[in-house]
Structure prediction request, 422 residues.
Amino acid sequence: MEQSYVVHYSEVALKGKNRPEFARALARNVSRALYGLDASVRQGDSRIFVQTGADEGEVLRRLSKVFGVSWLAKASSVPPELPAMSTEVLSQARSLSGSTFRITARRSDKSFAMTSKEVEESLGAEVVAATGKSVSLSRPDANVHVDLLKGRALVYSSRVQGPGGLPVGTAGRVIHLFSGGIDSPVAAWLLMKRGCRPVYLHFFAAPYPGAPLDGKVGKIVRILSQSGGRCTLLLVPFAEYQLATLGTVTGSLEPSLFRRFMRMSAELLAPAFGASALSTGDSLSQAASQTIWNLRTFDDGCTLPVLRPLLTYDKEEIVDLAKSIGTYDASLEEYKDCCSIVSSHPKTRAKGGDVSELASRLGFAELARKSFSQGTLVGYDPSRGKTKVAPLGEVLRRAALEPSARGGVSTQEKAHESLEPF
Ligand code: ATP
Ligand code: MG
Prediction:
């Protein structure tokens, strides 16, 4: 049987001139989240309406993860007349557990003859008479909502909380440095919550991208895509970097140098993917490589903002978030990447000059491009359950967007959509 759902977005966040654009983006993300369920999605009355015969649990599960959704409910739509509303309210009230209830009426259509309070009192009295339940306005066991809209009333008694935030895609793209650890997935989730779309960039040690893709990195990206929707993961081997630095770099400088290599690579890829910023899972002083001086060395000379949503979070807070998002267990899985380089007894105050001098002497920009040519682009669309894989170098070349051929930046920004498989 067809069911209706009403989806509410945060009124405060979506105020102002941009509101229609945000609402459209949210409706689009809601549609995508429901892919394959044969659902119709419509905007109106500052809400999104969904009509579908799909399993209720599945619909609620998918929609409660869409950023920008404040809350949602399975709702019955009836004519905005007291007898029709009363029939529906009584039917819902009979199936509710507990001995107390309240009616919460809201009039979006102020032309309705009764005030919200009058509607509540009238319907409440009928429920008391029919069920023997009593009214509790402050701590009811159940709350039956009646929203009076133009031409119809919505009746629902169970709200499901959404994640809040802004629709993914409304705050631009970022190249997100993505490790297999606990922190960077949480940072990505927080960025998505504020509307950013991350393009995940992961550096790996193994000669073939199968290890990260079939292992925890691919797994975590798939978990995150339940909230963020379709996404792009760039897998780049760092063998070229290892070869170039072998025997040249002293141990304590190496973490800062490698992090500079990752940052420069991300920056070089940004225009091709239309990204306006870089982001990381850094937390201030969590590791020696993340002291304020080393973060400065990381950022030195970077022309893009570097976003660090976890900068002020304690590890415990990050772990709690990772557990609630669902990435924690996958992050603990064993995986051999470059952690040993990032965390091997680094200097707490690496000198920016030393790192920059080495980066230019070792030709990091060229090393990064060589690494891209051995990299892999993975597109993942959770709603279709599809993964597409393409050689990164070839994708960049085919679109004539290879970072080495930089120039027409605006054309590149426009063309970034075509780089992505979905
Ligand atoms: P954890 O600290 O729980 O191991 P993490 O994701 O923070 O996880 P760190 O080793 O602390 O990993 O690295 C700090 C940051 O550097 C990461 O958040 C990430 O942004 C970046 N980073 C580390 N390793 C990689 C990698 N292999 N590829 C891309 N970025 C990485
Ligand atoms: Mg960390």
About this structure: The chain has two domains: 3-161, 173-419. The chain is about 40% helix and 20% strand. Residues 116-131 form the longest helix (16 residues).
